[in-house]
Amino acid sequence: MDLTLLNGLIQKDPGVIVGPIATFMGWIIDFIFNLVYPFTEKNSLGISIIVLTLIMRFVMLPLAFKSQKSVMAMQKLAPEIEKIKNKYGSAKDPESMQKMNAETQALYAKHKVNPLSGCLPLFIQMPVFFALNYLMNQSFLFIGKLSRLYDELANAIYKVPYWTGMIMNRAPTHVPKNMQPFDIAPMTDPSTGSLNFHNLKKILNRFSETDWNILLDGDPANPKWSSVIAQAPKELYDQILNLYAQKQNIEIFCGLNLLDPSGWLFPGVLIPILTAVTTFLTSWLSMKVTAQANKDPNAMMQQRIMLLVMPVMMGALTINYPSGVGIYWITSSVFQVIQQALLNQKYGIHFSVQKKEEKKQNVG
């Protein structure tokens, strides 16, 4: 059997960068969840994700301040950059353009200014984004309460052999072909039995609402399952229903299962839409700030490309990612919009006043 099964994975290992970040975030979100859960079982995972996001954004505030200072430095360099452009005039030959760019970059280096620093926080968030995707896909490995719930569910299901058989029939839809066969049948041999039990937990973690409905209520396409479910011991069946309800209370937030992909259907499709919109707002606001200071056409072109590419890319990613990842990104983007507005006020960046002054200088 594939050794990766021992690591509790139904997806490939996230790697040496994303993996440690996911582990670290797992510790934090488990700590937050243990604080939230005693106050509210319902929506507890969603609230924990939002709190985690706010913590991450506050940790990144020094970087935001540094980025804003870089923008202010760009404003001071604007006259020098304009002189370099005037020096080469309308020359568009490759040699002149290369020299102009070289002088511009040398000016940036001398004053330790990065013209794309406004986009830096967005890029730094990407490893966190992918780490949270891994974490949400393997949530029971990181959140202790969920792990215990899945333990209890797996133990109860193991007591009803036909349920194990039904799950094995559904399992291939959730397991990559290169990781099959994916055995979950109860085993008397402890060495393989423990592995199969863990496999069962992984499959239950990937079960969709449709899978759970078939497991608990029967499959209309297979009357045999429905008749057997009716014969299940009521006490055991009620126990599983109760555990399933607890699991749903934790994993569902605003009507969305945070562990399921957002998808194209309502209400899940709101996640990629809001992700794209909020990403556009943060990118646009960042570009609007840096545009007042940075007149380098190459840098401006790169920022315009990012303004279009990032919202589309993030929206597309969250369609197939767990909804919890989208909640993180949307919360982070809203925080960044508010943060940028406050930073603009703090550092006195007023676009309209600056434009009037520039017009007076040009007239003079």
Short description:
This protein is an all-alpha fold and 364 residues long.
Folded structure, characterized:
It is a single chain. This protein has 364 residues and is mainly alpha-helical. It has 2 domains: 3-52 and 136-257, no CATH class; 57-132 and 264-359, no CATH class. It has helices at 15-36, 44-59, 61-88, 94-110, 120-137, 144-158, 161-170, 190-206, 209-217, 223-230, 234-251, 270-291, 297-320, 323-346, 351-363; strands at 252-253, 256-257. The longest helix is centred in the first third of the chain and has 28 residues, at 61-88.
List keywords for this structure.
mainly alpha, 364 residues, disordered N terminus, 2 domains
Outline type: elongated
Instruction: List segments where confidence is low: pLDDT < 50 over at least 5 consecutive residues.
Output: 1-9, 187-192, 351-364
Domain count: the total is 2
Measured as a percent range, the helix fraction is: over 70%
Helix/strand/pairing category: mainly alpha
Radius of gyration: 27 Å
The count of β-strands is: 2
- Mean pLDDT across all residues, rounded? 79
Biggest pleated sheet: 2 strands, antiparallel
The run of helices and strands is: HHHHHHHHHHHEEHHHH
Portion of residues in beta strands equals under 5%
Q: How many helices?
A: 15
Main-sheet strand order equals 1-2
Tell me the span between the first and last alpha carbons: 79 Å
